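Task: fold both queries, return tokens.
Query 1:
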Amino acid sequence: MGWRTIVISKNCKLSYKNDYLIVRSEDLKMIHLSEINMIIIENGMASITSYLINELANKKIKLIICDEKRNPSCEMIPYYGSFNTSKKIMNQIKWSQERKDKAWQQLVKYKIHNQAILLEKLKIEGYEKLLEYENQVELADKTNREGHAAKVYFNLLYGMDFFRSNPDNTNISLDYGYTILLSLINREIVSKGYITQLGINHKNEFNQFNLSSDLMEIFRPLVDEIVYNNRQFAFDKEYKYKLINVCNREICIKGKNQYLSNAVQIFINSVFDFLENERESEILNYEF
């Protein structure tokens, strides 16, 4: 798996030759596809060949296209991510409700725990309340501890006047970072032969990424931390690069330090193992 995130911000032509991404603008640049994790095209005047698009899909390299404001608007997802995709989808349809409820309970506990750990790391008082909520999470989170914890968490992190619905600089930054996370999760789900539409808890008929929305929850604090530490800056090109670079963040999972892109793969493997096997298995969390 590659480690580079390529951001295209100038007028250029992207093409493919001998396993290399070719970028033609004022000069010529070549990057081997094995090094690339994700390509983000910010410039609406950039062009890309269909041959390159097909090679990116074959090698499971994520391609994200941005709108006129340079915010992510769409991404490329291949039809087939695994040789036995049909079998994986049939298994996904048959996941038992009991197993999904247990999985969601664990994911919510991890999310709240990670939020509390971030607050403690930033030396923000009040994180103990979130640890209380973590211990109160029931099967399928029937009492919505996730929602209660989120309200306390965001108020402690960004102030009592903060609301996720406000179109302010903080929310724009969060949404941008969350989109990068979502794309990373999408790629791993599809590469393993599953589909993103069938979720564990999210069931919105208009959401193409219900399962991805479920699985990205525990990683949101990684973006929240970047936004908190840069809240005094304008949401400009450099700020976006900091959010994009979350993919290269090192975190500890299963006792080893891993780049986020690798940690996500290990985490998702543990989730699918839990959902598909009635034997005892564990959904993994990470450490900052």
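Query 1 returned. Query 2:
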Amino acid sequence: MWERRYGFPRPERTSGGSRLYSEADVEILRLLTQALAHGYRPGEVVGKPREELSRLVLAASQAPTPAATGTPTLAMFFASLGRDELALVRADLRKAAVLLGPKRFVVEVAHPLCLRVGELWAEGTLEVRHEHMLSECLSAQLSVLRSAYEDRPGAPRVLLATLPNERHGLGLTMAEVYLAANYVTPILLGVDTPAEQIVKAARAHAVDAVGLLVTQASDLKATKTHVRWMLGELPRRVRIWVGGKGGTELGLRDDAVRIVSTWNEMDEAIATLPRGP
């Protein structure tokens, strides 16, 4: 993945196509691993000279470690957000991701933050700009976590999307990271997508399931109509996973539809996916 995205490393190849790394490559890769462990993003460090990487790692190792200060709490995030200290919000998100790993970060930090920021906005404690800024910070950190996973040949594939007029996409990004961490290949189609385009994408990518995010703001009647139509158009082996608070209110009764309203239910759904040898 780094070869494609950053042009590094550039290993030699054997006659059989296997990669051969130089000692210099290995040394730089070890430094990069240490830098990522200290919270740097790949785009911030890949491509830097060895000497500069060594200085960054040395400086980071001499600073207080995340474990010494503990995982940031939700109260800490919202206190920083209320003061418009976005640099601190981003730093604490990186720290939490390093300490918890991708799955726990999604379950214990990202998802609760999304739920709580909506409540605080409704209470008048935070403004719309705060909600938008937190969403951007979370999206950026989730993208970093997703970039650590390369698609595996033979892994099950799940398409993620929302139906027309549903533009809340952060839940899709969280699901994308969670699936990737469970060795599932997520295909993020995005928000506000016509049902026929979702079906075409599902066929084109030979997915095993289609994950739809349905919030309480969704038009449930229209959503139900779309899902029923999709059931008739998708290959019968393809399941539809319906996530979000609105999913439990659809009242759909079909063996091909699965309500995935919690992360435990997501684990159960993942367990049903076909696995290659």
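Both queries returned. Flag for query 2: DSSP finds twelve helices and seven strands in the chain.
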